[in-house]
Amino acid sequence: MATESATVIGGVDTHKHTHYAAVLDELGRLLGHQEFPATDKGYHDLLTWMGSHGEIRAIGVESTGSFGAALTRALTAAGQRVVEVNRPNRLARRMDGKSDRLDSEQIARSVLGQTSTAVPKSKSGMVEVIRTLRVTRTSAVKARTQAFNTLWGVMIGAPSPLRDELVELSKRTLVNRCLPLRPETENLLELTHDPHRLLTAGIATSLHDLARRWKALDEEVKSLNRQITSLVSAAAPALLELHRVGVELAGQFLVTSGDNADRIRSEAAFAKLCGVAPQPASSGRTTGRHRLSRGGDRAANSALYIVTIVRTRHHQPTRDYVERRSAEGLSKREIIRCLKRYIAREIYAHLPRPAASAASGQLDPAA
């Protein structure tokens, strides 16, 4: 039996409606397991139940960015150390099977064995708002593109008089020209006696509705752009001062680091998070070999690539570096990798953190 002074480790397998929790002692013995509802009261009961087994050292939570986001906020607000656990123990799953109890126990064991040590994003500040607005804007942009593609397809198949009037117009002009299109009557059944008029009226109705949809989505995108710009400018003015780092790219770097950017302990850790840290690939007599990292946040990696390509074209110090490294025999791809690693170091130095420890001076890209 656990004593009051025992130190325990918790693990939580998160779901949409319920969370399943398990508690281990420091020797890895299972002290208990129980299911709780995914509500504020359920979070309080879960924490109280874990605390009844002893002093809580850490709690591993699965899917801290989705099903476990609210639980993570509640546990962090209560002063608990939360560890992000996303990859299950596949060997244990093959040997023992899968259930909520087994999953929660394996989550706790990964924290106890320190195979999972990542601090989750707090998701409770301005950066989280920026993330949700960016997700909303991405959805609106996709819907706007789909609406115009549908409008274009309908217009191409329209009768000749209507098609000839619209086919040569640019995108925005085409949408504006389709907005005032109206059929002769709102009840298309009245035109069934004349197939040509029915076809023209039906296509005019479709073009009008699609143009109105595109216009509404366009206004939504513009509104979201204004809000994102103001929030990013307030959250990370230092990032926007970097050469060729605009609102869109700065927003992505903020989302990658999270509200609690101090959870990233060094610029090397940030580079690995962005997928630009070379990984060792030595074996046997082959030593000193490295390979390109395929992990990390691919959106952040793409943002670093965009900054790199733009700087190689419009930033003279970067152009000089490319020429020098090319003379040394490096290929274009190798030079881009070096530049991405340097830019990641520069971005990390300008991230908003409570206690900035990274220097923001000029750094050698080859370092």
Summarize, please:
The protein has 14 helices and 7 strands. It has helices at residues 40-51, 69-77, 90-96, 100-112, 126-156, 160-166, 171-178, 195-235, 237-240, 247-257, 267-273, 298-314, 316-327, 332-349, and strands spanning 7-14, 18-25, 30-37, 55-62, 82-85, 279-280, 290-291.
Question: Can you give a write-up of this model?
Answer:
- The chain has 367 residues and is an alpha/beta fold.
- The chain folds into three domains: 7-112, 2-Layer Sandwich (Nucleotidyltransferase, domain 5); 126-235, no CATH class; 237-349, no CATH class.
- Helix content is 54%, strand content 11%.
- The strands form two sheets. The protein has a five-stranded mixed sheet.
- A hairpin with a 3-residue loop joins strand 1 (7-14) and strand 2.
- Residues 356-367 have low confidence and may be disordered.
